[in-house]
Specification:
The protein has about 300 residues and is an alpha/beta fold. Helices cover about 40% and strands about 15% of the residues. The protein has a domain of about 190 residues: Rossmann fold (3-Layer(aba) Sandwich). The protein is built from 11 helices and 13 strands.
Length: about 300
Amino acid sequence: MKVLLTGGTGFVGTAIRKQLVEGGHDVRLLVRPKSIHKLDDADRYDVVAGDVLDSHACLRAVEGMEALVHLVGIRREYPQMGTTYESLHTEATFNIFDAAKRAGVRRAILMSGLGTRENAASRYHSTKWEMEEIVRGTGMRWTIFRPSIIFGRGDEFHPLLADLVLRTVVPLVDGGKALLQPVALENVVEAMTRSITMPETQGRIIEVGGPERVSFVDVLGFVARHYEVWPNSIKVSSRVMKPMVKMLQRFQSFPLTYDELLMMIEDNICDTEDFTSTFGITLKPYRENLPQILGAKDLVTA
């Protein structure tokens, strides 16, 4: 199948683009010009230089395609640089799906996020909902995936935790009791790439999580024990943190935004039965694979 992939140079996108090619698909990538250097295997793809915020680039990218896999999204905003949830979630999704619909693309795969819902507390989740609404309204044969934290070599989450454990005081908001359900990159990639040719997944929202539910404070402890250190943490109430973060988030060097705080204090878990039964996937365990993700223990001396 001729597949257009957006977000193909990111953590998830890199794995998906390779899996698509290995699965026999003809893959086109819509890549920002300044990110093309990230493609270490560019000769395997039809690369269109352009931005999802440019409707003309989107129209060029979708021409002749049969399926669209849309991964573009951000976890953190940088308003000073024009990087906002509204632009990279809502506007970008509208642009690429409007172009795809005009071009007659029929199959669509969207990566959303676990916790996405109407009237969500965080703008991250509320704009993800807007993305989903755009896709649901296209009339295309869509499948929406909502993964929890995705883990694997090269993810952004664990290096951040390692840096916190090794160098700073870690605030445990409301005791760090919120639950996560980390899911392996391999499990997510397998399901998303296979779903393109699985009619039974069309018109479905599939929540994706791993086999273990762990609290943030537990994850912090796993990371600390890996590096053989004791985390320097402090318990802080979200009621105290909210006004402080709202005030300080405008400084780019401040490590937390208000939206990230809102996401930190709510559980990010799901029932995995639908995911595993649909794809016949055995979920990769989290804790026993964590040492491979974190890497060398001598980082503690860096």
